[in-house]
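Field log, afternoon session.

UNIT: design team B
ACTIVITY: writing a sequence onto a fixed backbone
BACKBONE:
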């Protein structure tokens, strides 16, 4: 099994939280509650951007604090937070920042965000970033938005359906939050969920079958 990085801060943090485990132990080590806002264009005919907010668990947050608190004052100043944001930003690049968009079942490319912001609130690390479609993303057909880590090491959780939001959706479109049942997902994908997948989830990218996603369905173009 080749190593995975997921959200990697300096070596000590990665070793503590994101170390490679045996195949039978593939499960999340880092947890984040998330919000996704699908921002529409002024005419509400296309997607302008995706805004992400992730609130990380206290264990991971405290580890980040210890790693980046250079002056040992038990807080992160602006310079230290900038370093946190830059480290997470670069480590997520290989994973498309955990965002997956499909249009009528086909992958759709999002631009990398221009930057990422990080701060602490109630002892938890908060990360925010925004990305734009690489090409025009019209509200036509079926569009799915998912946020997940293909390596399984970071669990991105949308605790409430309202945390996958779109404001100003046209009346002829529908919004649905889909939460796949794990047992059903496994049964429906039994042929592809082989031992190789559990040895190397990055190699198959099948973790998306378990991911919560926002589905927008609009009339097709034309």
């Amino acid at each position: 099994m080749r190593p995975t990085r997921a959200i990697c801060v300096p070596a000590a943090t990665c070793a503590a939280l994101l170390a490679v485990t045996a195949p039978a132990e593939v499960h999340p080590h880092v947890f984040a509650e998330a919000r996704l806002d699908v921002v529409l264009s002024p005419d509400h005919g296309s997607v302008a951007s995706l805004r992400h907010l992730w609130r990380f668990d206290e264990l991971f947050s405290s580890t980040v604090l210890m790693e980046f608190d250079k002056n040992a004052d038990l807080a992160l100043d602006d310079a230290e937070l900038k370093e946190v944001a830059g480290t997470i930003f670069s480590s997520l690049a290989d994973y498309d920042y955990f965002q997956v968009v499909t249009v009528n079942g086909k992958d759709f490319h999002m631009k990398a965000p221009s930057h990422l912001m990080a701060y602490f609130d109630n002892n938890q690390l908060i990360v925010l970033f925004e990305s734009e479609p690489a090409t025009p993303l019209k509200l036509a057909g079926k569009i799915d938005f998912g946020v997940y880590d293909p390596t399984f090491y970071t669990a991105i959780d949308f605790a409430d359906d309202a945390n996958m939001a779109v404001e100003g959706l046209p009346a002829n479109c529908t919004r649905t939050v889909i939460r796949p049942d794990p047992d059903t997902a496994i049964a429906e994908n039994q042929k592809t969920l082989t031992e190789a997948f559990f040895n190397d989830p990055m190699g198959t990218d099948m973790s998306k079958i378990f991911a919560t996603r926002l589905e927008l369905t609009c009339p097709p173009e034309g």
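LOG NOTE: The helical segments are 11-17, 58-68, 78-92, 182-188, 195-199, 201-204.
NEXT ACTIVITY: expression trials, pending approval
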